[in-house]
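Example record used in the benchmark description.
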Amino acid sequence: QVHLVESGGGLVQPGGSLRLSCEASGRIGSHNKMGWYRQAPGKERELVASMESGSRLYGDSVKGRFTISRDDAKNTAYLQMNSLKPEDTAVYYCNARVPNSGGIWLVDYWGQGTQVTVSS
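Model output (structure tokens):
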């Protein structure tokens, strides 16, 4: 079982910045995917950013504003969010995709989420 804990959410004004952190309980190898998703009330969960083997992927709505990074020695992923907009308001969830115990298939693990609110 992999446990993920997010931190760094809060209230910020439009145009401001936040940095989210996600710490995993065990080692997540650099070849395994870690990422961030978000979900607003009444909306589907959507991809924000993901990273594996040094390759980054971003959702269209955050390209050019958000940056995902990882410190694999600390099993921690980060999301730097700049130029925040009210529409970025959501609960942000950390995700890790790792092999199951038998190595037969990949399993998605999720953190508890951290609230990000962008408002004046």
